[in-house]
Amino acid sequence: MELEIRNRMRPKLDQAIKRFDMSFSVQLDQAIKSPLTQRSGLVLLYDMSNSSYKNFDFDLSQKILELLKKLYNLSTAIEQIEWEPKRKEEYELRHNTNNIGTFRYELRHNTNSIGTFRYELRHNTDSIGTFRYELRHNTNSIGTFRYELRHNTNSRGIFRYELRHNTNSIGIFRYELRHNTNSIGTWKG
């Protein structure tokens, strides 16, 4: 029965993840490339190649440290999970605490045939399926490490805090922290 449910739910979950991938990447990339964003210092960029801060607001330093600590703790916990050897290719852990079939906790680990490791952790605290915490860790086939942490505090799915850490194939380290304080998705430092 459990296997039947997993097989039935997997396509829906995969579709949801793909939609999240596309929308999140597009929105964040647009925000970073926006001239307004660059001019007003809404996005924090730290470039290790020249050890300089761009658009840096020191008032955010404590929040950055707190988010990095949460991100490290969550990713470390996922790394230490003893995955079942017989289910090496894909793992899913879902926990449902309400009566309408909304899963409040989801953990997935996928290792595909080209060596891509992927971790996704989501935590939902409301009754309509809005996930307020999302952590993703992706290592793709070209050695790019990527961490994404999002925290949503409203009821419409607008994420007010976003932290990303990217190490690309040419060794550039990048940290981005965004904080949204309004209801229409405008990001502020």
From TrEMBL:
Segments forming a coiled coil: none
GO MF term list: DNA-binding transcription factor activity, RNA polymerase II-specific; RNA polymerase II cis-regulatory region sequence-specific DNA binding
Localisation: Nucleus
Name by which UniProt lists this protein: Uncharacterized protein
Organism of this sequence: Nematostella vectensis
GO annotation, biological process: positive regulation of transcription by RNA polymerase II; regulation of transcription by RNA polymerase II
Record keywords: Developmental protein, Transcription, Transcription regulation
One GO CC term, this protein: nucleus
